[in-house]
Design brief:
The protein has 285 residues and is an alpha+beta fold. Helices cover 39% and strands 21% of the residues. It folds into three domains: 65 residues, Winged helix-like DNA-binding domain superfamily/Winged helix DNA-binding domain (Arc Repressor Mutant, subunit A), CATH 1.10.10; 100 residues, D-Maltodextrin-Binding Protein, domain 2, CATH 3.40.190.10; 91 residues, 3-Layer(aba) Sandwich (D-Maltodextrin-Binding Protein, domain 2). It contains eight helices and ten strands. A five-stranded mixed sheet has the order 4-3-5-10-6. A three-stranded antiparallel sheet has the order 8-7-9, with helices on one face. The longest helix has 30 residues. GO terms for molecular function: DNA binding; DNA-binding transcription factor activity. Pfam families: HTH_1, LysR_substrate. Keywords: DNA-binding, Transcription, Transcription regulation.
Length: 285
């Protein structure tokens, strides 16, 4: 199974149309179709259900899509590390970041780490809200600057800061005029949800510990748009800048959101240890 074939399959699976996938890959459709048929033959199972309207994924196809994305991301990471080493001879530290890149703690960390380790090439991998570990488990990053809670099995997690949390509402929502809220005040409302397969600890926390109904979102922007367009309940740490069309009302019975730095157990290096030390100082300032 070649990486090129996996890239072909991911394009078809994401576009759900051979013609659009071929255009995206800048190739003609016949060789793309042949490559996918050969992949199905090699695996001994149908990956796609074809129809005149396009294609849909079979259950094995959905599984392969997730695995192929991880493999391709890993292959890209290998290329990045090798290219950086060839160009500069420098060590490379892959940092996964979740959420708001304008956080002042993260900005102080970046400046301090750069001053302390100008010889280290830092590469950033920003992830959406569906993976709070930012690719740690797949080996895509060395360290994650993220938020808890999530399944910490096999990981070392160090808390940097805790932030109170509020409900994000439309500014014209009657509840937006309140000084504070409890989760029970929002019980009958539609919330955002994360896709199936998202870390259950993470999902439960951002849904206030209860199963919710509402639109499925993958990123912060999608969550904000769900609030604006549909009046759903969003959640955010207090202090985040939002548009004037939105309001954040503190939740008095919601546990704080913990900013953490995490890495795989046993995976330490001088660059990683120093990153954790500098991060601890940067977030306490």
């Amino acid at each position: 199974m070649e990486l090129r074939t996996l890239r072909y399959f991911v394009a078809v699976a994401e576009e759900l149309h051979f013609g659009r996938a071929a255009a995206r890959l800048r190739m003609s459709q016949p060789p793309l179709s042949r490559a996918i048929k050969q992949l199905e033959a090699d695996l001994g199972t149908a990956l796609l259900e074809r129809s005149p309207a396009g294609v849909t994924l079979t259950a094995p196809g959905a599984t392969l899509l997730n695995e192929a994305r991880t493999l391709l991301d890993r292959a890209d990471l290998v290329r990045v590390r090798v290219a950086a080493a060839a160009a500069t001879g420098a060590a490379v530290l892959m940092v996964g970041i979740l959420g708001d890149g304008t956080d002042r703690g993260a900005q102080r960390l970046a400046a301090a780490y750069r001053r302390r380790h100008p010889e280290v090439e830092v590469r950033i991998r920003e992830t959406d809200l569906t993976d709070p570990t930012c690719g740690l488990r797949a080996g895509l990053v060395d360290v994650a600057l993220t938020r808890a809670p999530f399944d910490e099995t096999g990981l070392t997690v160090h808390e940097l800061r805790s932030d109170p949390v509020g409900a994000v509402l439309r500014a014209d929502d009657p509840l937006a005029r309140r000084d504070d809220l409890e989760l029970a005040d929002l019980a009958a409302r539609r919330w955002f949800r994360f896709p199936d397969g998202t870390d259950p600890y993470w999902q439960s926390y951002w849904n206030g510990g209860e199963p919710r109904q509402g639109p499925v979102v993958r990123g912060v922007a999608e969550c904000v748009q769900a609030v604006l367009w549909n009046g759903t309940v969003g959640m955010a740490p207090l202090g985040h800048d939002l548009s004037e069309d939105l309001a954040v009302v503190p939740l008095t019975d919601m546990a704080p959101s913990r900013v953490v730095v995490a890495w795989n157990e046993g995976h330490t290096s001088p660059a990683l240890r120093s990153f954790v030390q500098i991060a601890t100082a940067a977030y306490r300032t």
